[in-house]
């Protein structure tokens, strides 16, 4: 671990960090949306939706530009010649997100960890790479009792860029009101989370996840359980 510096905030990734990591068949998720958009042609539309999402994530990897779920639906609709019906699209997005809901449940220890950090006088925040809408994320966080335990929540669907772009991290730092050198960032992805945060001068904690792509970066600490983050932060704060 690095030498002690003042820590004023502990900031988190969401999926795979505050929630458990899930491997999901993305085509199955889009089939749910396709059954709303085109019930008689759902397989072809689902494939187009998945292609559109792959295109979005390929773009974000290369350019770090963000996207929204609505953009994915518009792109796929154009590809297969579906009319752009906003009411139908809203229903399709809602069905798609409902399909994902079981994978969004917070880790059992998440509330205790956030309570413990706040009890130490630390600010907390969340930064998620996502094309899903803020309202849905906020609903899930409220469901799990985490919403009021996070002083700031930033979603890249509201931004122009995604992690590891420095502007994504700066948006959260500004929202929490701390400098990068005063923050610890906790995440399960070495490139998006650890590299991105460390490049700005934040301390980093990697929640080990062998299912995500590797990256040549060294976090300040590595844990296997979210509950271990409090002990790590205490050590980083120690004189």
Please tag this protein with its features:
6 strands, 2 domains, elongated, alpha/beta, Rossmann fold, 46% helix, six-stranded parallel sheet
Give an overview in words.
β4, α8 (190-199) and β5 form a beta-alpha-beta unit. The mean pLDDT is 92. The protein is α/β, with parallel strands linked by helices. It contains 9 helices and 6 strands; from the N terminus they run βαααααβαβαβαββα. The chain has 2 domains: 9-20 and 105-237, HAD superfamily/HAD-like (Rossmann fold); 26-102. α2 packs across α3. A 6-stranded parallel sheet has the order 3-2-1-4-5-6, sandwiched between helices. It has helices at 26-37, 42-63, 69-80, 86-100, 110-119, 134-143, 166-176, 190-199, 229-237, and strands spanning 9-12, 123-128, 152-155, 183-187, 203-207, 221-223.
In short:
With 239 residues, this protein is of the alpha/beta class.
